[in-house]
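Protocol step 4 of 6: record predicted structures for both targets in the notebook before any analysis. Target 1:
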Amino acid sequence: MDKNMRRMRSQDVNPCIEESDGSQKCLDANNYDKTMCSAYFLRYKNCRKYWHNIMLNRRRDGVKPDMPTAEERQEILAAIGGKPY
C-alpha cells in the first residue's frame, strides 16, 4: 500500500472510512450496479460534508489540528447522540 493509500485509511485523517467501506461492499455485492447503492453513497457524501464543516469551523476558530482526531470525533458523536448523517 503506498503512502497516500495508508494516509486515507488512517482514522485520524479520514473520518468516513466506515461509510466508504460500506459503499465499496455494496458495489461488490451488487455487481457494481450503482443504482442499488445510492443510500450508501448518500451516507458517505453526508459524512464528508459534516466533517468538512467541522474542519472549517475549527480552522476558523484557530483550533489545531483542523480535523479532530478519531478519539475527539467519537466524543463529538457521543455528545450529539450518534451520527447525524
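Target 2:
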Amino acid sequence: MMEEVKERTPPAETYLLWSIINLLCCCFPLGVVAVIYSIRVENAVSVGDMSRAVEASQTAKILNIVGVVTGALALMLIFVMYAVVITRLNQ
C-alpha cells in the first residue's frame, strides 16, 4: 500500500535548469543559492525525504522568481540610466 502512494506521488521539482540560467544571466548571488537548494531537492528525493524535498523545491522556486525580477529591474534601471546619460551628452 505504501509503495503505491510513493509511485503516485510525483517527485519534487528541482528547478535546476532555471537556477543555472538565473545564476548566469540574471542575479548571480540568488542564482548560487537557488542552485544549492535545487541540489538539496535531488539529495532529499534520493534518500526518500519528500517533505524536505518539497520544502527545498519551494525555496528554489522563490529564489528563482526573486532573482529574475531583480535581474529584470536592474536591467531596466541600467537602460534608463544609459538613456539619460546619452540624452545629456547630446545636448
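Step 5 preliminary note on target 2. DSSP finds four helices and no strands in the chain. The chain has a mean pLDDT of 89.
Proceed to step 6 after PI sign-off.
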